[in-house]
Structure prediction request, 496 residues.
Amino acid sequence: MNYQEYLSYDGLGLAELVAKKEIHASELLNIALERSNQVNPELNAIVIPMHDYALKRTETNLSGPFAGVPFLVKDLFQEYAGYPTSYGCTGFKRIGYIPDTNAEIVNRWEKSGIVTFGRTNTPEFGIKGITEPDAWGSCKNPWNLAHNSGGSSGGSASAVAGGIVPIAGAGDGGGSIRIPASYCGLFGLKPSRGRTPWGPQMSEAMHGAAIQHVLTKTVRDSAAMLDATHGEDHHSMFKIERPHTHYLEIIQQPPKKLKIAFNTKSPIGTKISKDAVQAINQTVKLLESLGHEVIEDHPAIDGMQLAKDFITTWFSQFSYMLEEIRRQYPSKSTDFELDSLVLSAFGAKTMAIEYIQNLNNWGIYVSQMNHFFDRYDLYLTPATASVAPHNGEVKTPAWQKPIMKALLGMGKAHLLAQGKLIDQIVKENLKWVPFTQLSNITGLPAMSVPLYWNEQNLPLGSQFIAPFAREDLLLQLAAQLEEAQPWFDRYKDIQI
Prediction:
């Protein structure tokens, strides 16, 4: 098999060839490694190799729906025992941190038969919507190397779109599957709260806002991997309702006529690009051509307040995590990025009563979305406010850094988040990606579907949000859209 043939298959397609003994897992791995050697120096998608592990695994008797398929995991909460992980952090990279247990999601991926040969680039602790960590450098977008791949699953997205692997591990706590899917023209599904496990290190992440799954080129790869990984483990807070039928079977049937609300206005009042508006308008026309009813509407939710509540939880949780790291491991002042230290300082000053009020608001948003879905089957928005930003475009202005350092030194960095400045912080942090946090806070499943490319051949995804535990409905519609407007052949246009 040559590379062009390799590129013509998705993950399930490659696994079928292995099952028929038309190719061996080691041959597929060699193709993936050769492609990685060719393009990763430019993409900077893979930061920690696991070649020895992968080679040994191809010599075993692999089974499962993805048996023999080359795979990559995100360098964040997708640990392999005995192999380094950095979480995108200079400090963990410096000490050469090696976990002693597998993450449960990794165990389930392993049971599906994948062959993992590396860990992918991610922003420090996944706190940004771009992948430009000090520890590893910027991850480039395969569609245009001057642009970023997004975050926090940017390395995985870049590796899949760039043709290194057909499928890769990802995670989503504020849009981190859907954002890079939008920027890199991939299919990205964020499952419902609790759909995939977080053990053994934790029961859930950020009160269930964060969830793990994969980035793929095809809907069926995502469906099949969800079949392989869904369900609680012994560490889970609750048991989610299980589907009555395999997702891979569900997508064989088109959805019923759906009533879909759509909106292109930013919930926090920030600018939305012409590309984003055009992407949704085109998606609306496609949906109508398929017989669905599409109505312009939006939930009765204060978007700015929701964003503040998300930021409060995000900063506070991050502050706790950073404090735990400092307690367990010797650290230096240079081990963490300046932005990370400032965000942690913000979070450290959150009062208990404020945090409880914030979590109470989460419940209100859930109720509001439940009422919204009494009237609609799905909610459609842009996945991102624009196509992928240029590398270095989303960063703290140089003039702010001395101020931030000085305030940190005096223990007063939290003052930056007081009063009206918090609104500015929210808008600056989320203006590129104002649409994704809603489904994280409410725990609802959501997906980014690659249906639009602009004149510069840069993609932008259409986001659909569904009622709780209705991944089946999202996947059904995604498969229908994929059939009506196929995107798989577009990856051949990537020249790197």
